Every structure is written in C-alpha cells, then in structure tokens.
Amino acid sequence: MRPDPSGAHGHRARKRFGQHFLSDPAVIDAIVRAIDPEAGDCMVEIGPGLAALTQPLVERLGRLTVIELDRDLAARLRRHPQLEVVEADVLTVDFGALAARCSAASPAPRRLRVVGNLPYNISTPILFHLLRWADRVQDQHFMLQKEVVERMVAAPASAAYGRLSVMLQWRYAMEHVLSVPPQAFDPPPRVDSAVVRMEPWAQPAPVDVALLETLVQVAFSQRRKLLRHTLGRWLASRAYAGTFDLQRRAEEVPVAEYVALAQALGGAAAA
Is 129 part of any known ligand binding site? Predict the structure, then answer.
C-alpha cells in the first residue's frame, strides 16, 4: 500500500519545499541496489522526507547522516537512534566539515557518499554547491527531474548539452542509472524522474572554477548564435590572443575545449 502523505504518516507534502515522497517499494529497492551501501560507509542523505530510502540505507550502513529542512520531519527523524539529523537548508551545509567528522570517526580515512531525492526546484543550485567538495566525495546518487539528468549527461551537439553538462562533466563521470515514473511518488510530480550516479574524477583538469563557470555562462547565453557574437566579444575584452574556433555554436564545443580555454585564460591572467 502506498503511504498517504496527509494520512497515516500525519505529514502533508509542502509545496514550498518541493516535497514528493518516494513510495514505490520496487523503485526504492532498485535505488538501494544501485547505491550498494556497505557498513561503515560515510553517507549523507539529502532530503530524507518520510524515510522511505533512509530506512533500508541505515539498515545496511549502521549509521547515517541526514539533512532535512522541514522541522516537523527533522523531529520525526531524530527519534531514530542511528540517524544524525542536520536540520538546515542544504545550500548552507559545509560538506567538507561533514566529511572530516565522518572520516575522523572511522578506523581508516573515508570519503563521503552523498545520496538523496533532491527538491526539483533547487536541484541545480545543490549540484553546484556540492562541486566545491568533490575531492572529498566518493560518489553521489541523486533522484532528479529526468530532464535535468539528461542535461547532466548530454553529449556535445545535442539539444540537452549546456552549461550544466560542461561544469559537471569536467568534474564527474556520470551515468543515468534508473528512470522513475511520477506514480512512484506521493504526491506524484508532474514530470518524469531519474536517478544519476556521479563519481568525481580522481585527477580532474586543474582550472579556475569561477573562470570556467563564467566562460561557459557567456558561451551559452545566446546558444542559437555563433560564439563570435557572445564568447568572442568576451574574449576580446580580456585581450585573449590565442586561437579558438568561434565559428561554432556553444553546444558544438566539447568539455575539454572549454576547460583548455579557461586554463589558457587563467595562465594569461596570472602572467
């Protein structure tokens, strides 16, 4: 039987928090198998909600840290002795501190494993927030709007390829691991969902992240135009004297070329 968010659980889904509670046992089991949690893992769950995913995770882990903004749900979660509850907006959470605390409590150094059914209305800001701690992370498994996952894993020269694709593919190897229909949630969202696996590259190309982000944002600001109309002007304002093919549209440029351009600009700025 699917749980009623306003009935037996006594909690009504709140639109301002983007709450859609996962309730399909088969989907929950598939996600847990994809995550493959092991006892002793340093795991953090974002947005545990009614603990549909939390419960099978903690059974395998022994202990789990959860981040929950809704104070009523946070109070429910605190009743579970195996949970450490961080009641906060995830965009304010220092994942570096969580990683350090978890690793210090382990017999051997460990990196964070981050999971969650992310609020769809702020999923992109959360992904960018986590970027700064990618070197402290083993992997990330997130439920997101399917359209967002398609943008994350998109290849160049495709309609879905954009700023999110470039920034995340620079730092992570990513895989669309599971599609999830609206009927798997209470209340059902109006969009299809998907689970993505993100594994940080062990040795990402060194780059000024803020510069790369600005460069990519300028490039995709008018994606139907050739880059000479957007990125070309921006490069000229920075006195860039190198060679970069601006007779292309933004979606035609591979991630590696954007990174190389940012590296060249960063070197020029430092010279």
Answer: no
Q: Which two tokens stand for residue 263?
A: 């590296």
> How far, in Å, CA of 93 to CA of 114, rounded?
13
62-117 per-position pLDDT tens digit: 999 999 999 999 999 999 999 999 999 999 999 999 999 887 877 777 899 999 99
Q: What predicted TM-score, i.e. pTM, was given to this entire model?
A: 0.88
Q: Where are the domains of the chain?
A: 15-200, 209-270
| Residue 213 assigned as binding residue | no
Q: Which residue's structure tokens are 């002795």?
A: 81
User: Is residue 162 annotated as involved in ligand binding?
Assistant: no
Please check if 22 is assigned to a binding site: yes
| Protein fold of 15-200 | Rossmann fold (3.40.50)
Q: Tell whether residue 20 is among the known ligand binding residues.
A: yes
- Domain 209-270 adopts which CATH fold? Helicase, Ruva Protein; domain 3 (1.10.8)
242 is in an annotated binding site: no
Contacts of 202 (CB under 8 A, 6+ apart): none
